Amino acid sequence: MSSLFVFVEGSDDERFFRRVLCPCLEQHYDRVRIVRYAQTRNRKIRNFIHTLEQRSTEYVLVRDSNHYPCVTAAKRGTARRYGIGDEQRIMVVKPEIEAWYVAGLDLQTLLRLANEIELEVPDRVTKEWLNSVIPPEMPRSTFMAKILDEFDLAVARQRSESLRYFLKRYC
Length: 171
Fold this sequence. Notes:
By secondary structure, the chain is an alpha/beta fold. The chain has helices at residues 11-25, 42-54, 71-82, 97-103, 107-113, 127-133, 140-150, 153-159, 161-170, and strands at 3-8, 31-36, 58-64, 90-93. 52% of the residues lie in helices and 13% in strands.
């Protein structure tokens, strides 16, 4: 086995990986390191990735699809920004990490956690939509943690195409 560095955008991504995906990843890698990159200078991340590539250390950079028209465009833009030679090392979450959170919940759980709800296809859930269903008196971080308390990876695997792809590739 070997090490895996997982580059994630922010705190929601890190929370999701630590609570949901690290246990799975740790069955296949001796060591899994989570690195938040969105608030770090591009040059620093580029140098870090270059060092990992020189050492033949496995890594994956996880990003939201955001404004990109397709996964290919998101991978190309990210590869250029961070000097990644192999676009297969980039995993695109469709459309945002919040979709992976919601994918692991059944409708009954969503209704219990949120004040109001629309039946959403998980791969269409956005940060803005999720923010709109968080009870006003509840901090976002608390709401996200409550989702993970109820999260079912088997359900999420069925409901999210991009999560299913990640699991197939790394777990």
